[in-house]
């Protein structure tokens, strides 16, 4: 298992740094997640070939889409999804 963190103190050490503006407006919450190694490797391959994407952007897009598809109706959630999808500052 691999571990990911969106903790601000860890972000400075991420392979794919996050824009500071992106974090400042969204008030991030730290997450520590275990994922299977195969998922981690696939994510790394994707990020290596799509340099405009970074780990946090992928997780924000994926989590917000999952929640919307499973009945969470929230205007802010929709906005976060679109912002992460189109790399706009939230």
Protein model, in words:
Helix content is about 55%, strand content about 10%. The protein has a domain at about 55-90. It has helices at about 10, 20-25, 35-50, 55-70, 75-85, and strands at about 1-5, 30-35. It is globular. By secondary structure, the protein is mostly helical. The protein has a two-stranded antiparallel ribbon with strand order 1-2. The protein has five helices and two strands. Helix 4 runs antiparallel to helix 5 (about 75-85).
Keywords:
single chain; 90 residues; mainly alpha; two-stranded antiparallel ribbon; 5 helices
How are the secondary structure elements laid out?
Blueprint: E1 2-5, H1 8-11, H2 20-26, E2 32-35, H3 37-49, H4 55-69, H5 75-85
Antiparallel strand pairs: 1-2
What's this, in brief?
The chain has 90 residues and is mostly helical. It has five helices and two strands; from the N terminus they run E-H-H-E-H-H-H. A two-stranded antiparallel ribbon has the order 1-2.
Q: Proportion of β residues?
A: 5-15%
Helix content: 55-70%
Order of helices and strands: EHHEHHH
Q: What is the general shape?
A: globular
Overall pLDDT confidence: 77
Q: What's the arrangement of strands in the largest beta sheet? A: 1-2
Low-pLDDT stretches are 8-24
Q: Helix- and strand-based class?
A: mainly alpha
How many alpha or pi helices?
5
Oligomer: single chain
How is the main sheet built?
A: 2 strands, antiparallel
First-to-last CA distance: 30 Å
Beta strands, count: 2
């Amino acid at each position: 298992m691999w571990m990911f963190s969106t903790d601000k103190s860890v972000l400075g050490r991420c392979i794919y740094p996050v824009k500071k503006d992106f974090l400042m407006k969204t008030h991030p919450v730290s997450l520590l997640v275990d994922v299977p190694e195969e998922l981690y490797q696939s994510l790394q391959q994707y990020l290596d070939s799509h340099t405009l994407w970074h780990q946090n952007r992928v997780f924000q897009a994926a989590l917000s889409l999952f929640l919307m598809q499973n009945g969470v109706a929230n205007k802010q959630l929709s906005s976060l999804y679109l912002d992460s999808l189109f790399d706009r500052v939230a």
